Protein backbone atom coordinates (compact mmCIF):
# COMPACT_ATOMS: atom_id res chain seq x y z
CA UNK A 1 0.00 0.00 0.00
CA UNK A 2 1.38 3.39 -0.97
CA UNK A 3 1.53 5.78 1.98
CA UNK A 4 1.94 8.75 -0.37
CA UNK A 5 -1.39 7.92 -2.03
CA UNK A 6 -3.05 7.62 1.38
CA UNK A 7 -1.62 11.02 2.30
CA UNK A 8 -3.04 12.48 -0.92
CA UNK A 9 -6.47 11.00 -0.14
CA UNK A 10 -6.37 12.60 3.32
CA UNK A 11 -5.48 15.97 1.79
CA UNK A 12 -8.29 15.67 -0.77
CA UNK A 13 -10.82 14.84 1.94
CA UNK A 14 -9.59 17.72 4.11
CA UNK A 15 -9.91 20.07 1.12
CA UNK A 16 -13.54 18.95 0.68
CA UNK A 17 -14.20 19.47 4.40
CA UNK A 18 -12.62 22.93 4.22
CA UNK A 19 -14.82 23.92 1.30
CA UNK A 20 -17.94 22.81 3.18
CA UNK A 21 -16.89 24.62 6.37
CA UNK A 22 -16.15 27.83 4.44
CA UNK A 23 -19.51 27.65 2.65
CA UNK A 24 -21.31 27.06 5.95
CA UNK A 25 -19.45 29.99 7.56
CA UNK A 26 -20.42 32.30 4.66
CA UNK A 27 -24.07 31.20 4.81
CA UNK A 28 -24.22 31.69 8.58
CA UNK A 29 -22.53 35.10 8.27
CA UNK A 30 -25.03 36.18 5.61
CA UNK A 31 -27.89 35.06 7.85
CA UNK A 32 -26.41 36.88 10.84
CA UNK A 33 -25.99 40.15 8.94
CA UNK A 34 -29.14 40.06 6.83
CA UNK A 35 -31.43 43.04 7.47
CA UNK A 36 -34.42 40.80 8.13
CA UNK A 37 -32.61 39.25 11.08
CA UNK A 38 -32.02 42.43 13.05
CA UNK A 39 -33.35 41.78 16.54
CA UNK A 40 -36.68 43.49 17.23
CA UNK A 41 -36.65 42.61 20.92
CA UNK A 42 -34.50 40.75 23.45
CA UNK A 43 -36.16 37.44 22.56
CA UNK A 44 -35.39 37.71 18.85
CA UNK A 45 -32.06 35.87 18.73
CA UNK A 46 -31.90 34.45 15.19
CA UNK A 47 -29.17 36.89 14.12
CA UNK A 48 -27.17 36.25 17.30
CA UNK A 49 -27.45 32.48 16.90
CA UNK A 50 -26.32 32.73 13.27
CA UNK A 51 -23.34 34.85 14.36
CA UNK A 52 -22.30 32.17 16.87
CA UNK A 53 -22.67 29.54 14.16
CA UNK A 54 -20.59 31.61 11.73
CA UNK A 55 -17.84 31.95 14.34
CA UNK A 56 -17.85 28.22 15.00
CA UNK A 57 -17.69 27.41 11.29
CA UNK A 58 -14.82 29.86 10.82
CA UNK A 59 -12.92 28.17 13.67
CA UNK A 60 -13.59 24.79 12.11
CA UNK A 61 -12.25 26.02 8.76
CA UNK A 62 -9.09 27.31 10.46
CA UNK A 63 -8.58 23.96 12.22
CA UNK A 64 -8.88 22.18 8.86
CA UNK A 65 -6.34 24.59 7.33
CA UNK A 66 -3.88 23.75 10.14
CA UNK A 67 -4.49 20.02 9.62
CA UNK A 68 -3.88 20.42 5.89
CA UNK A 69 -0.60 22.23 6.57
CA UNK A 70 0.48 19.42 8.91
CA UNK A 71 -0.43 16.76 6.35
CA UNK A 72 1.37 18.61 3.54
CA UNK A 73 4.57 18.73 5.62
CA UNK A 74 4.20 15.11 6.72
CA UNK A 75 6.74 12.67 5.25
CA UNK A 76 5.93 9.07 6.20
CA UNK A 77 9.11 7.05 6.62
CA UNK A 78 9.62 3.35 6.11
CA UNK A 79 9.06 1.20 9.18
CA UNK A 80 12.18 0.76 11.32
CA UNK A 81 11.80 -2.25 13.65
CA UNK A 82 14.47 -0.85 16.00
CA UNK A 83 12.22 2.19 16.70
CA UNK A 84 8.89 0.37 16.54
CA UNK A 85 5.70 1.98 15.31
CA UNK A 86 6.12 5.70 14.67
CA UNK A 87 4.17 8.43 12.92
CA UNK A 88 3.65 7.33 9.31
CA UNK A 89 3.32 3.62 10.07
CA UNK A 90 0.72 1.51 8.31
CA UNK A 91 -0.33 -1.05 10.91
CA UNK A 92 -2.47 -4.17 10.76
CA UNK A 93 -4.01 -5.07 14.13
CA UNK A 94 -6.05 -8.13 15.03
CA UNK A 95 -8.42 -8.35 17.99
CA UNK A 96 -9.42 -11.33 20.13
CA UNK A 97 -12.16 -12.24 17.60
CA UNK A 98 -9.53 -12.44 14.80
CA UNK A 99 -10.96 -9.29 13.22
CA UNK A 100 -8.25 -7.35 11.43
CA UNK A 101 -8.07 -3.61 10.92
CA UNK A 102 -5.67 -1.43 8.97
CA UNK A 103 -4.52 1.81 10.59
CA UNK A 104 -2.46 4.65 9.16
CA UNK A 105 -0.83 6.70 11.91
CA UNK A 106 -0.66 10.34 10.83
CA UNK A 107 -0.63 13.91 12.11
CA UNK A 108 -3.54 15.47 13.97
CA UNK A 109 -6.67 16.45 12.11
CA UNK A 110 -6.89 13.58 9.67
CA UNK A 111 -9.09 11.10 11.47
CA UNK A 112 -11.09 9.42 8.71
CA UNK A 113 -11.67 6.18 6.87
CA UNK A 114 -10.13 5.65 3.45
CA UNK A 115 -10.40 2.91 0.86
CA UNK A 116 -7.30 1.62 -0.89
CA UNK A 117 -8.08 -1.14 -3.36
CA UNK A 118 -10.51 -3.35 -1.48
CA UNK A 119 -9.14 -2.44 1.96
CA UNK A 120 -10.64 -0.05 4.47
CA UNK A 121 -7.98 1.99 6.27
CA UNK A 122 -8.62 4.02 9.40
CA UNK A 123 -6.43 7.11 9.63
CA UNK A 124 -5.69 8.02 13.24
CA UNK A 125 -3.50 10.49 15.06
CA UNK A 126 -0.66 9.59 17.37
CA UNK A 127 -2.64 11.62 19.95
CA UNK A 128 -5.61 9.23 19.78
CA UNK A 129 -5.65 6.64 22.58
CA UNK A 130 -5.00 3.75 20.18
CA UNK A 131 -2.34 5.76 18.35
CA UNK A 132 -0.51 6.50 21.63
CA UNK A 133 -0.77 2.86 22.68
CA UNK A 134 0.81 1.68 19.40
CA UNK A 135 3.82 4.00 19.48
CA UNK A 136 7.04 2.03 19.87
CA UNK A 137 5.35 -1.37 19.46
CA UNK A 138 6.62 -3.98 16.98
CA UNK A 139 5.11 -6.87 15.06
CA UNK A 140 3.84 -9.49 17.51
CA UNK A 141 3.43 -7.01 20.39
CA UNK A 142 0.19 -6.57 22.30
CA UNK A 143 -1.62 -3.22 22.31
CA UNK A 144 -4.37 -2.47 24.80
CA UNK A 145 -6.60 0.51 25.45
CA UNK A 146 -9.32 1.22 27.98
CA UNK A 147 -12.62 2.28 26.41
CA UNK A 148 -15.09 3.17 29.15
CA UNK A 149 -15.34 0.02 31.33
CA UNK A 150 -13.95 -2.26 28.59
CA UNK A 151 -10.30 -3.07 27.98
CA UNK A 152 -9.65 -3.76 24.31
CA UNK A 153 -6.62 -5.79 23.30
CA UNK A 154 -4.99 -6.19 19.91
CA UNK A 155 -1.95 -7.86 18.44
CA UNK A 156 0.24 -6.07 15.93
CA UNK A 157 0.28 -8.39 12.89
CA UNK A 158 2.15 -6.27 10.36
CA UNK A 159 3.76 -2.87 10.13
CA UNK A 160 4.85 -1.07 6.96
Automatic annotation (TrEMBL):
Keywords carried by this UniProt record: Elongation factor, Protein biosynthesis
Organism the protein comes from: Roseateles toxinivorans
Classification via InterPro entries: GreA/GreB_C_sf, Tscrpt_elong_fac_GreA/B_C, Tscrpt_elong_fac_GreA/B_fam
Stored Gene3D superfamilies: Transcription elongation factor, GreA/GreB, C-terminal domain
Lineage of the species this protein comes from: Bacteria, Pseudomonadati, Pseudomonadota, Betaproteobacteria, Burkholderiales
Annotated TM spans: none
Domain named Transcription elongation factor GreA/GreB C-terminal: residues: 85-159
GO MF annotation, one: DNA binding
Pfam annotation, one family: GreA_GreB
Single GO BP term: regulation of DNA-templated transcription elongation
Top-rank taxon, per record: Bacteria
Name used for this protein in its record: GreA/GreB family elongation factor
